[in-house]
From TrEMBL:
Transmembrane segments: none annotated. PROSITE patterns: ABC_TRANSPORTER_2 (PS50893). Gene3D superfamilies: P-loop containing nucleotide triphosphate hydrolases. The lineage of its organism: Bacteria, Bacillati, Actinomycetota, Actinomycetes, Kitasatosporales. GO terms for cellular component: membrane protein complex; plasma membrane. Keywords: ATP-binding, Nucleotide-binding, Transport. Residues 20-257 form the ABC transporter domain. This is ABC transporter ATP-binding protein. One of its GO terms (molecular function) is ATP binding.
Length: 265
C-alpha cells in the first residue's frame, strides 16, 4: 500500500496542482542545548482537491508542520507557499489577511464564540473581513453539514459533534483554497467523529475543497486520499488510498523502529 519507492520521495508530488508546498521547511524551538528540531528540512506538496492526512508518533512534528504550512507559526528556515504566494517572509498583517481570505481552520477544541448563534459563528470570519457571504455557497455548506435546523442555537445548546460541524462550516464559509484540521475528531465520540470526517470527505468530493488533517486515529486517516507519515521532523513515508488496518500496521513500525526511513521494512 505504501507508495514509497527508490525514485519517489514521500510527500513530494509532480509540479503543478499544489494547494500548498514547502521546501526545506525547518522549525527549531528554543536554542542551545535545549533546542528541539521539530521539522528537519521538510519538502512537501499538498495536492489541490484532495484530502491529505498527516500521521506520526507523538512529538514527530505533525502540528508544527500544519501550523507552518498555514502561516500560524514562523519557520526557522526554508520556504512555504499557499498556492503561488510565498508566505515565508510575509509581514504579519499580510499573513493575517492571507489566513483570513484563503485558509480555513478546524481545531480539536472547536473554538466557537459562545455568545453567538451557529449561523453567526459560521459567518463571523467573513463579517470581520467585511465580506458579503455567498448565500448560495453558505446554504450548500449548511445543508452538506446538516445544520439547517440548528442555525439559531448557541454552542452550549449543541452537542460536541454539532459544534465541530459548525466549526467545519465556518472553515468552509469563505470557500478557502485550503482547510487545515488539527485533530478535528480528538474531542468527539466515535460516531460524531465519523460524521465530521464524512463531512470533511464530502467537502472534498462534493465541494471540491482541499483538506489537510493531522490525526492520531488510523480510522480517521483512512478517510483521506493520502497519508503522510512524519517521524522525527521528517516525512518518512506516504500511503495512497489508506485503510485503517494498513495505517495501523505502518504506525506499529514506528514503535518497533524509531526513525524509520523511506523504503525501510
Ligand atoms: N512551543 C514549543 N516550544 C518548544 N518545543 C515545542 C513547541 N511546540 C512543539 N515543540 C516540540 O516540537 C516537537 C514537535 O511537536 P509537535 O507538537 O509538532 O508534534 P506532534 O507530532 O503534533 O505531537 P502530538 O502528536 O503529541 O500532538 C516536539 O518535540 C515538541 O515537544
Amino acid at each position: 500500500m505504501s507508495t514509497s519507492t527508490a525514485d519517489h520521495v514521500p510527500g513530494r508530488a509532480p509540479a503543478g496542482a499544489a494547494a500548498a508546498r514547502a521546501r526545506g521547511l525547518t522549525k527549531a524551538y528554543g536554542s542551545g542545548e535545549t533546542a528541539v528540531l521539530a521539522l528537519d528540512a521538510v519538502d512537501v506538496d499538498i495536492a489541490r482537491g484532495r484530502f491529505t492526512a498527516v500521521m506520526g508518533p507523538s512529538g514527530s512534528g505533525k502540528s508544527t508542520l500544519l501550523h507552518c504550512l498555514a502561516g500560524l507559526d514562523t519557520v526557522s528556515a526554508g520556504q512555504v507557499w499557499i498556492g503561488d504566494t510565498e508566505i515565508t517572509g510575509l509581514k504579519e498583517r499580510e499573513l493575517t489577511r492571507l489566513r483570513r481570505d484563503r485558509v480555513g481552520f478546524v481545531f480539536q477544541s472547536f473554538n466557537l464564540v459562545p455568545t453567538l448563534t451557529a449561523l453567526e459563528n459560521i459567518t463571523l470570519p467573513m463579517d470581520i473581513a467585511g465580506r458579503r457571504p455567498d448565500e448560495k455557497w453558505i446554504d450548500e455548506v449548511i445543508d452538506t453539514l446538516g445544520l439547517r435546523d440548528r442555525l439559531g442555537h448557541r454552542p452550549a445548546q449543541l452537542s460536541g459533534g454539532q459544534q465541530q460541524r459548525v466549526a467545519c462550516a465556518r472553515a468552509l464559509a469563505s470557500r478557502p483554497e485550503l482547510i487545515f484540521a488539527d485533530e478535528p475528531t480528538g474531542n468527539l465520540d466515535s460516531r460524531s467523529g465519523q460524521e465530521v470526517l464524512g463531512f470533511l470527505r464530502q467537502s472534498v468530493d462534493r465541494l471540491g475543497q482541499t483538506v489537510v488533517m493531522v490525526t492520531h486515529d488510523p480510522v480517521a486517516a483512512a478517510r483521506s486520499d493520502l497519508v503522510l507519515f512524519l517521524a522525527d521532523g521528517r516525512i518518512v513515508d506516504e500511503m495512497e488510498r489508506p485503510t485503517a488496518e494498513a495505517v495501523l500496521e505502518r504506525m506499529k513500525r514506528f514503535d518497533a523502529v524509531r526513525g524509520a526511513v523511506p523504503g525501510e521494512g
